[in-house]
Write a structure and sequence with these properties.
Length: 262
């Protein structure tokens, strides 16, 4: 079964363009000047910190194709007024894979652990999650209302049941081999960003197994979210203009995080 959201491929186009662009001034995702780690029971989780003051905001990147650098421009703008925390999900980039099975609930608990470690005074944070990160953000806000002040979730489905009949009936899987054919430049970039690039293929296979579940987030969990929430989604077809909505999403999302105005 194919993934129930086309934003993964939109993200692939977006991040491939980043990989082919001139070198960024800041290497988001592999920035030694901003790197920090938090230990869990079986792994070290990586995050980057930018800016000072203001209401803290935590960024949770997308899955498979995604990583911290997909938020580059958003981080650059938000960090002018806010403390920004960009977390690498377990197994991605500089974060260890760990030994536990991958799940959105585990990602949410890892995010809670990192947030509590950084803000020991119990300060609430704003959260922006994209795709896989959006799914994680729903569970985080539901299970840890004491941590989340505002939430922006972009392109995060609640389960595979939201997919089209065509997608549900398809036997196609997003395998490491298919990704290598589709976006070889992006795959090379993601492997280069990893502390253990030899684990890339297994990471993608484990993520596919995680997405085989019919339900990612329960309705009761959605209803339990107390924080003001902006959910952004769409069904834009993949074409030459597919990246344009991302820029509009970024501006609107930042406005919501800064002011609470949708």
């Amino acid at each position: 079964m194919r993934k129930p959201f086309t934003l993964l491929l939109i993200l692939a186009l977006w991040t491939t363009a980043l990989a082919q662009a001139p070198e960024q001034e800041v290497r988001y995702g592999t920035n030694d000047q901003a790197e920090h780690y938090v230990k869990t029971q079986d792994a070290k989780l990586y995050y980057e910190r930018y800016g000072e003051g203001g209401q803290p905001v935590v960024f949770l990147h997308g899955g498979e194709y995604g990583y911290i650098d997909e938020f580059a421009e958003v981080i650059r703008q938000a960090s002018k007024q806010r403390t920004v925390i960009a977390i690498a999900t377990g197994g991605y980039g500089r974060s260890d894979r760990g030994t536990r099975p991958l799940s959105h609930r585990q990602f949410a608990e890892d995010t809670a652990l990192v947030t509590k470690d950084i803000f020991k005074s119990g300060e609430k944070v704003d959260v922006m999650g994209f795709s896989e990160g959006a799914i994680t953000s729903y569970i985080l806000a539901s299970s840890h209302p004491e941590l989340v002040r505002r939430l922006v979730a972009i392109g995060g489905p609640l389960g595979a049941y939201g997919a089209s009949i065509e997608d549900l009936e398809s036997d196609e899987q997003l395998t490491p081999e298919l990704m290598q054919q589709q976006v070889p430049g992006l795959v090379a970039r993601r492997k280069k960003q990893m502390i253990n690039p030899e684990q890339w293929d297994q990471l993608i296979r484990d993520l596919n197994a995680m997405y085989d579940r019919m339900v990612y987030v329960k309705q009761a969990e959605i209803r339990a979210i107390q924080a003001p929430t902006l959910i952004m989604a769409g069904d834009t077809r993949l074409n030459s203009s597919a990246r344009k909505p991302e820029k509009r999403c970024s501006r609107r999302s930042i406005r919501f995080l800064l002011t609470g105005v949708r």
